[in-house]
Every structure is written in structure tokens, then in C-alpha cells.
Amino acid sequence: xxxxxWASIQFIKRRWNQTxxxxxxxxxxxxxxxxxxWYVNHTYRRVQTQDTNFEAFFALGNGxxxxxxxxxxxxxxxxxxxxxxxxxxxxxxxxxxDALLRTVDELSRPxxxxxxxxxxxxxxxxxxxxxxxxxxxSQNMADRPYKNYEEYRQRHGSFxxxxxxxxxxxxxxxxxxxEQRRLLSLQQLSNNNRPHIHLLNIFNSTILRPDGHVGFDDxxxxxxxxxxxxxxHFWYSSLLELATLEGV
Length: 248
What we know:
This protein is an alpha/beta fold. It has helices at residues 54-58, 66-71, 90-106, 149-156, 167-187, 203-206, 227-245; strands at residues 6-14, 38-46, 59-61, 64-65, 78-81, 113-117, 197-200, 213-215, 218-222. 32% of the residues lie in helices and 18% in strands. Helix 3 packs parallel to helix 5.
């Protein structure tokens, strides 16, 4: 939520006896199912790098907004937020992250379960390197996972392109801000409109997986199914832990 590349947000509403509309960013063609019980709107929107306008991001057009979605669903909503991998300085990251926290607070939804997912850099030089038609598919094209953090640092610690070397400082900034937020909430028990934001740490495990990338000059994104499926496992495990703590 809040940085360049195409931000992909999916909202699902239950609307009895209405149609299911599916939109993509390439066309306005819709597919209808008269018996569908769910309304799905998949929207892509480019967001500026500096001075992010979160109100513009919340606007969907057609008389509806993401705020409308939240207001129409007063029950608890599980939300995972992230500022993306295309941030090029700690100053930009901190400005966007602080604005993100303000936006969450302005929603006044303390009942929601919100996670901030930190960000993992790519692995330069991932396999396969050749174009698909030139790759030797008779050979094992996948690297093995790294054994530990030190092996990752030895191979990628000096890589400066795309500012991947700054991601740890971004994650540390977010971690500290969330901890400060937690401590402040404990001191101001009367403030019930600020939801607690949990940290979803995918960095430690993901940096050990140079073997799962798309490859062919894309050493940031991962194949599916693959590494990112574990992010969902981590999130689900966190939800189960929270449910246990709440006695659900």
C-alpha cells in the first residue's frame, strides 16, 4: 500500500442475488455469473513515489471507494500491508511508512487485525540466466537454498543495484516504529481507536531462497507455487496464535 509498480488490491463483498464482476487492468470487459453470491473487484493503480496521496489510492471510481468497502463491513477484517520493493532511500521509506500509519489510524477500526509485512530483497545472478529458448533445460536450473544468513551476506552483501542493500534498514525502521506504537498504546489505554499492527516477518526465511525466482533477468519475483506460499503459512500461523491469545 503506497509505492510504485502496480498496486494490486482485491476486495470481496457478499451481495445476495447479485452478479459477480471481474475487472482487470487491461480492459473494462466484465464477466457475469447470474448465480454468483460474491462481488469481486480487482483493481490496479499506480501510486507516486513521493508525498503519497493515500486518499487517491483509496478512490476506486464509479462512486465507490476502498473506504466504502471498509464501512460496509463493520466486522473484523484481516489486512496485510506493505510498501513494496521499489523504494530507493530510507527517507522515502520512512515518509511513506509514517503516512501509512496515519492512514490506518484515520480509519478508526480498532477491531481489525492488521499486519505489516516486511520486505525481502532479490538475489542477483539467480538461475536460469539465459532466455527460455536458449536455456539448457536438461540441467538442474535451480540453486540450492542458503544454509544461513552469513552465506546470503557473502554472496549478496555488496550488491547495491536497486537499493536492495537498504531493505534491512527499511525493515528495522518499521520494526522500531511498530514497537514504539505498541508501547505508546499500553501507556494510553483510553485510546481505543488505534488498531494494533503486527509485524509479519518474511525476511529471514526469504533471503535464504535464491532458488525460487522467476529467473531470466527477474531475480526479485518468485515462481508460484513457491517461496511466497510460505508467507501465507506464516500469516495463518500468526492468526492462529492471536486466536489462542484471545481465547477464540
